[in-house]
Amino acid sequence: MSSKPLCLSLISAVLAMSALFSTLSAIPVHLGNYASAIESVDFDPATGHFGEPRPVATLSKASFLARSQDGKFLYAVAENAGGTLNAFAVAADGALTALNNRTSGGAGPCDIGISPDGKLVAAANYGGGSVVVYRRAADGSLGEQAAFFQHTHASKAQADRQKTPHAHGITWSPDGRLLLVPDLGGDRVYLYAYDAAAGTVAPNPAQAWLEMAPAAGPRHAQFSPEGRHLYIINELNNTLAVAAYDAAAGTLKLIEAVSTLPAEGFAGKTTTAEVVVHPNGRTVYGSNRGHDTLAVFRLDADTGRLTLTANVAVPAHPRHFALSPDARWLLVAGRDADRVDVFAVDAETGALKPTEEKLTTSKPVCVRF
After folding, report:
1. What is the dihedral of CA 122, 125, 129, 130, to 10 degrees?
2. What is the mean pLDDT of the segment spanning 180-184?
């Protein structure tokens, strides 16, 4: 029997596979912003190159976004006085189809997150100082309200920013047991217990909140890959705090807080915004708005403690940034620069190297793969 047909078949198969991978070479990235529509842009993980951004859903002040683990659904807050949570179905090319929306129950919703089991969507209201939780329906739409918490405590340590509570972030613990909400106005991180079997969320009986330093202004938080430590970025005093997480007890304990600014300091006005932990468990990043840098920290995996290793210049007012799924690239949304910049990431050290790739887009706030 001739091998020619077999060779031709193999060649055809290789060509077919090549064609398939070529269609998967670019992945859609969604951009939340302070403009009039959520945008989608193709990003090539092999080269770090962008395509052209395109509006995919008309929604004013759709600042922060969350995407389901299967990638099929996207959720967005509309950050205005009559705040809403908005659900969308995501097509393969990044196009969005609106499913429904629900009230956020407070002014200025500013962050949104999905529980690890995919059953709940929670949002924090900055202006309202409250937290709302909705159930997710099977079709990805937002269902009935599962919980609502109105914060009442304000630290008043910084008079112009802490007169009232300002819930600012949504973080679910990796084990799915806790919903954590940093409150900038209260200098607290609130802990809410999620009973997956009952489908309920309630104040955590073991520890209702973690007290932060006066005038710290906790904003966002992220766990280390193994789930032993929580990293909390403090907007007002420009620090990154480390807390140990006892999963069995459902409690947090502060370890330290370190400055996100260089040793020589910074004379201008600056505040922090976002924190991201590299999946290698050895690097943590935090953004400075005003100083306009990403602070790069070396993480001690045993103790969770941090050492500042660099401050890397980024586009003005970095509200949010995100690692690509393979962690080869880091994308920074510079709101006041109207730009998203791409940085190459060293796989071992987490060090950042600027690239020539810079996407021009109006008032970008959030980058979501």
Report:
1. -30
2. 99
Given this model, what pLDDT does residue 145 score?
A: 98
Are 298 and 283 a contacting pair, CB within 8 Å?
yes
Written as one letter, the residue type at 150 is Q
Where do we find the tokens 């489908």?
Answer: 199
Which candidate, 316, 340, 338, places its Cα nearest to that of 330?
340
Residue 193 in this model has a pLDDT that exceeds 50: yes
Beta bridge partners of 4: none
How far are the Cα atoms of 121, 267, 353 from residue 144, in angstroms, in the given order?
11, 48, 45
User: Measuring CA to CA, which residue among 109, 27, 121, 147 is closest to residue 66?
Assistant: 121
Q: What Cα–Cα distance (Å) separates residue 231 from each residue in 221, 254, 332?
A: 5, 10, 19
- Tracing tokens 């887009």 back to the chain, one arrives at 361
The alpha-helical segments, DSSP class H, found in the chain are 4-23
Q: Nearest-CA neighbor of 273 among 331, 209, 217, 206? A: 217
What is the separation, in whole angstroms, between the first and last Cα of the chain? 50
Decide if pLDDT at 12 tops 60. Answer: no
CA quadruple 98, 318, 168, 269: dihedral, nearest 10: -150
Q: What is the mean pLDDT of residues 10-17?
A: 39
The candidate with the shortest Cα–Cα distance to 213, out of 239, 195, 193, is: 239
CA distance 345 to 339: 19
Phi, psi of 47, rounded to the nearest 5 degrees: -115, -20
For the cut 50, the answer to whether the pLDDT of residue 17 exceeds it is no
Q: Which helix (H) or strand (E) holds 352?
A: strand 352-360
> Other CB atoms closer than 10 Å to residue 174's CB: what's the count?
16
Cβ-contact 193, 178 below 8 angstroms: yes
Amino acid in the structure at residue 352: L
Closest CA to 56 of 84, 17, 28: 28
